[in-house]
Sequence to fold (256 residues):
Amino acid sequence: MAQMSGPQSYQTKMTITQIKAEFRQEKNAQHASAISRFFKTGKGQYGEGDQFLGIKVPVIRKYAKKYKATQISVLSQLVTSQFHEERLLALIILVMQYQQAVKEADTATRNAIYKTYLKAHPSINNWDLVDVTTEHIMGAQLFGTDCKVLYTWAKSKILWKRRMAIMATFHFIRRGDFYHTLKIAEILLHDEHDLIHKAVGWLLREIGKREQKVEESFLKKHAHVMPRTMLRYAIEKFPEKKRRAYLQRRSSSTTR
Fold:
């Protein structure tokens, strides 16, 4: 395995070929096989056809720091890689660059990264790629603005667009704004995919951590029709007695 020698200077001139050559020295076939199963890459599964190098996330993050000033044009190529870890690497760097642009009040760079991110959405095609990045770019860009794109994506036939729509609102939740999360949760209430159930339930739980009355208001209206996984995620932090009551209410409703 290649050894990294601590913080490096900005690599603005590195090409995609150079990045791939160095990064792929970290590949591990045994781990790649295991992670492929974890991310459901078999026929008919949500990650069908995805390919892995077997590079662990802490290592990916070290390389992201090393390559943190890679040109956006290079990252836009890397994010379309056939390998999952290279797509994740490019996305993490885009998050780092976006956050730096926010600190520097660099609106032009923020807009460029946001446009690159939206264009790359076909490559943001697994739950980790969405969850690690969407709130920090899409959510941050849309906070306090017109969120029409989130509602459009929430109704998409593409699983990952729907997950991005709800996950983008995590940025809003962290700032005490629950409106769009609740509205999009209503759109996704009858979604058929387990990964959407988990994401919606997770963000409802995050609202509850901050304002339990807001979450419970939503649950009192919708718990009886929510997918069981969504509900279980949403009430995970509730006291046992209250959890059982919500689950019983749902069970009673579905057996009528």
In short: The two ends are 59 Å apart (CA to CA).
